[in-house]
Amino acid sequence: MVVKAVIPIRKGSQRVKNKNLKAFGNTTLLEFKINNLLKVRNLDEIIVNTDSEEAIEIAKICGVSYHRREDYYASSECSGSDFFEHLGKVTNTDVFAYCPCTNPFIEVTTIEESIDLFLSNVGEYDSLATVSDVKHFLWLNGSPINYERSKQPNSQNLPDIVSLNFGLSLIKKEDLIKFRNIIGLNPLFKKTSAVESIDIDTNLDYFIAEQLYKSIVIDGVNII
Questions:
Q1: What is the CATH number for 16?
Q2: Could you list the residue range(s) of the whole structural domain that residue 96 is in?
Q3: What is the tens place of the pLDDT at every residue in 48-60?
Q4: pTM of the model
């Protein structure tokens, strides 16, 4: 089956201005992601889906494909479901790999293993997503939702809840269009390390990621 990685880039990011093109690791988050994906042995193509001319130029320089996104699909009016359906319709592939560049630490081996795992189980599962353990005391509307107030457990004994961290999502093209989501009805979850799970969504996330990169790559501290 053909597997293509799509890197979504929107120039109008709101919480961290132009975050996908911010400096990172002596380059930009986008180029950093492209360079990592180029090392993945079982990807057939890498596509930058974007409304940013700067991102398109980076794609050209790196030798990967691009799709110039229509204005609506880069706007705040476009829902997540509309966007995912759009990605499925404009990407010619069997298996769609959603690879945001705001998850810079997911390792090449993790991506390769995930693709192999999904392809070998595609008849049983309709999607694969990287996830993180959530061992926090969660409340909603004034009440705890993952423990009983009168029987509070130690944090390690909380229920095994996981959260999507969007390091990697895999789904067949037809299911991406059908479900209008990168997660199907019967997903396979692959847990990643705390560092791999980092998703740059705020300025604090970006600061933490920069410091981790410096510690791991420059100072050689093994914290993965």
A1: 3.90.550.10
A2: 3-132+163-218
A3: 999 999 999 999 9
A4: 0.91
Nearest to 104 by CA among 1, 33, 7: 33
Output the pLDDT for position 49.
97
Indicate the residue type of 176: L
In a domain, 141, yes or no: no
In angstroms, how far is CA 173 from the centroid of its own chain? 17
In a domain, 137, yes or no: no
Is residue 160 a contact partner of residue 132, using CB atoms and an 8 Å limit?
Answer: no
Query: Which mean pLDDT values do the consecutive 10-residue runs of the chain (224 residues) have?
Result: 96 74 91 97 97 96 96 91 96 98 95 97 94 94 94 93 95 97 96 93 92 76 55
To the nearest 10 degrees (0 to 180), the angle between helices 53-62 and 29-37 is 30
Domains in the chain, number: 1
Residue 101 belongs to a domain: yes
The span from the CA of 77 to the CA of 71, in Å, is 10
